Amino acid sequence: MRRAVVWIMIGLLALLAAGGALMAVEPKAQAIALHVAHRVVRKVQNLIDPPQSLAAVRYRLFDKATAAVIGPPGVPDEASGIVVFIDYNCIFCRRQFQVFEAMAAEGRPPRVILRHLPHSVDSIALAQALLAARQQGGAEALHRVMAAADQPLGPGDLPDLARAAGLDPERLRADAASPEIEALLDGDVKLAWSLRIESTPTMVVGTELRRGVQSGDALAALTAAAAGR
């Protein structure tokens, strides 16, 4: 098995090199090469770390001790809770946050466990800050401030965001840099990979995994079905 993985990786390197040469020749050829390279990467990863089922990781998904939770008081459980993988700089995630807010305004606020799948260095900093805000009891407040942004955010915005959420910026910065917070973020990314989640927002509701922005009615129907109502 290991020898097979090594040879696949060698082939991948050769393929990527060829893709770089093709880049200067024709954009279409570049796109084809990158598509094939992506498929090879997936095959290698599947050999090293096979995908898991929702049932196999359900406890970790709904473990509120390792994540921030938004919504009404109570423990989000498998019957009525929603797990969503997010990136605070993802415009589609911001649309999903608006759906959550609209549901709350309509008197049917969802209970949501936030898990992170950042796609940039800036988004990594935002995810770590959100996780660290739990230590000041302000994760939901910081989430709402970041979710309402209408432009890309980065580490330089965090002091103002923290103050807007009623948090101590210096403490937030120190907490976000701790090994414990880094481990929590690593855990979220590993969870996403175990389910082969690559895009945001992606949600787990009951036994369903849904990719992309979901309407309030769709989420209400899914949570009702999961709860047997």
TrEMBL record:
Residues 121-220 form the DSBA-like thioredoxin domain. Gene3D superfamilies: Glutaredoxin. It comes from the Bacteria. One of its GO terms (molecular function) is oxidoreductase activity. Pfam families: DSBA. This is DSBA-like thioredoxin domain-containing protein. It comes from Azospirillum thermophilum.
